[in-house]
């Protein structure tokens, strides 16, 4: 199932910034066309799209709200029109318990944008419903092109939150546990030359953290270690291009510990790489890059919100 990305094509949601942007850039740098599906592009992503509007490996932006299934279908239509056959799909768009869709700020309370009569949480739609639907659309596309015999890859973005608990972010944690279950449940697609895998990053220096002061309260720069988006992207590329992935990020020498890659593989990415077991896994632990030292501030805020009169009741 190893696949050189040179001359191939990919779709990545959420690639306007963060890990997904780093993965998109790495793919383009290695000769792969990429459709970036996001609400908007941060400046660095716009530079990538402008620079690679033509040539052997192109980057194309398609404005996409991943909560809208019709826009997800349109995303595939545009990618097929631009590139033809698609080989790699990453449903990477995700949010971390934002104020506007948050367990401790129930529907109908400020500043939640989840309507008390809407029957939906935007956080769930973005973090798990959209990856499920994109995975279905990817499989449908792959099966239409199976006569070509090219291996296909679907790479999900999980998190150490897929193993850990976090009082301050219970919906986010639930969605990442769900991603792990989805990836493992689709492992047997490898019999159809479709490999489904995931990375489970630790504390990554992306706008998901750096643009949100309420989350930065958890990070103590004197003891915590940031993992870079580029380090995560390197592991994602290895999941596609290699039969084995090294414990040391970027090492392809084969001298250090290696993890075999197959359908259902989930690789935890801190400052090193670890395969996450389905049963009796020891958990992320406190390896460098895996933890934020101070959850007390955000947990106390959750308790403060919970103490408000009428918390959680519909305002209808």
TrEMBL record:
GO cellular component: cytoplasm
Entry-linked PROSITE patterns: ADH_SHORT
GO molecular function annotations of the record: oxidoreductase activity, acting on the CH-OH group of donors, NAD or NADP as acceptor
This protein's UniProt keywords: NADP, Oxidoreductase
Keyword NADP applies: yes
Signal peptide range in chain numbering: none
Matches recorded under InterPro entries: NAD(P)-bd_dom_sf, Sc_DH/Rdtase_CS, SDR_fam
Family membership noted in the UniProt record: Belongs to the short-chain dehydrogenases/reductases (SDR) family.
Protein name (database record): Uncharacterized protein
Biological source species: Penicillium cinerascens
């Amino acid at each position: 199932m190893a696949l050189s990305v040179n001359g191939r094509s990919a779709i990545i949601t959420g690639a306007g910034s963060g890990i997904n942007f780093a993965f998109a850039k790495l793919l383009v740098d290695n000769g792969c066309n990429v459709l970036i599906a996001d609400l908007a592009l941060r400046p660095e992503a716009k530079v990538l799209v402008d620079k690679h509007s033509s040539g052997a490996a192109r980057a194309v932006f398609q404005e996409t709200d991943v909560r809208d299934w019709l826009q997800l279908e349109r995303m595939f239509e545009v990618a097929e029109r631009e590139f033809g056959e698609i080989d790699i799909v990453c449903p990477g768009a995700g949010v971390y318990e934002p104020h506007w869709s948050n367990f401790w700020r129930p529907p109908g309370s400020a500043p939640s944008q989840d309507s008390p009569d809407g029957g939906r949480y935007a956080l769930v739609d973005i973090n798990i419903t959209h990856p499920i639907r994109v995975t279905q659309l990817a499989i449908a596309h792959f099966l239409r092109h199976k006569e070509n015999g090219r291996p296909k890859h679907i790479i999900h973005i999980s998190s150490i939150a897929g193993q850990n608990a976090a009082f301050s972010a219970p919906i986010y944690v639930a969605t990442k546990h769900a991603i792990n279950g989805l990836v493992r449940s689709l492992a047997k697609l490898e019999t159809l030359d479709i490999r489904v895998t995931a990375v489970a990053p630790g504390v990554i220096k992306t706008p998901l953290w750096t643009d949100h002061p309420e989350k930065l309260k958890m990070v103590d720069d004197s003891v915590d270690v940031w993992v870079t988006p580029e380090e995560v992207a390197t592991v994602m590329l290895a999941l596609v291009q290699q039969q084995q992935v090294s414990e040391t990020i970027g090492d392809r020498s084969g001298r250090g510990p290696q993890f075999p890659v197959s359908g259902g593989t989930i690789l935890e990415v801190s400052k090193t790489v670890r395969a996450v077991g389905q049963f009796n896994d020891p958990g992320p632990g406190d390896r460098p890059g895996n933890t934020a030292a101070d959850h007390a501030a955000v947990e106390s805020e959750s308790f403060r919100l919970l103490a408000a009169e009428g918390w959680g009741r519909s305002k209808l």
